[in-house]
């Protein structure tokens, strides 16, 4: 996990942290069940990456750039 502050989180705080994305954008991917976003505070991925598509480029989990704003996608499937 990203920045290591040494602070202890409660289970609820930890879950809230896991559900918090690093970025916000207009990509259709945010409404798609195949999208895995970069978690807030993660220092691993490049700064222009909002997350990964787990379908089209499987098994490599290709990253989606902040600059490649996707408005339509043939493989998009809505969140349940
Ligand atoms: S299937 Fe399409 S909409 Fe869904 S995460 Fe991949 S690129 Fe984004």
The sequence of SSEs as H and E is HEEE
**What spatial form do the alpha-carbon principal axes imply?**
globular
Rg computed from alpha carbons, rounded to a whole number of angstroms: 14 Å
- Please describe the biggest sheet, giving its number of strands, its sense, and whether it closes into a barrel: 3 strands, antiparallel
Oligomer: single chain
How many structural domains does the protein architecture include?
1
Give the terminus-to-terminus CA distance.
26 Å
Identify every distinct bound molecule in the structure, by name, code or SMILES: iron/sulfur cluster
Give me the number of helical elements: 1
Helix proportion of residues, in percent?
Answer: 10-25%
Secondary-structure-based class equals alpha+beta
Q: What are the segments in which pLDDT stays under 50 over at least 5 consecutive residues?
A: none
Protein described:
- With about 80 residues, the protein is an alpha+beta fold.
- It has one domain (about 25-80).
- It has 1 helix and 3 strands; from the N terminus they run αβββ.
- Strands 1-2-3 form a 3-stranded antiparallel sheet, with no helix packed on it.
- The protein starts with 10 loop residues before the first helix and ends in a 15-residue tail after the last strand.
- The mean pLDDT is about 80.
- It binds iron/sulfur cluster.
- Iron/sulfur cluster binds near residues 28, 34, 73 and 75.
């Amino acid at each position: 996990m990203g920045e290591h502050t040494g602070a202890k989180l409660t289970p609820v705080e930890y879950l809230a942290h896991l559900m918090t994305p690093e970025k916000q954008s207009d990509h259709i991917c945010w409404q798609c069940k195949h999208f895995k976003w970069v978690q807030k505070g993660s220092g691993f991925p490049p700064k222009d990456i909002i997350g990964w598509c787990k379908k089209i480029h499987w098994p490599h989990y290709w990253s989606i750039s902040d600059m490649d704003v996707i408005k339509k996608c043939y493989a998009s499937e809505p969140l349940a």
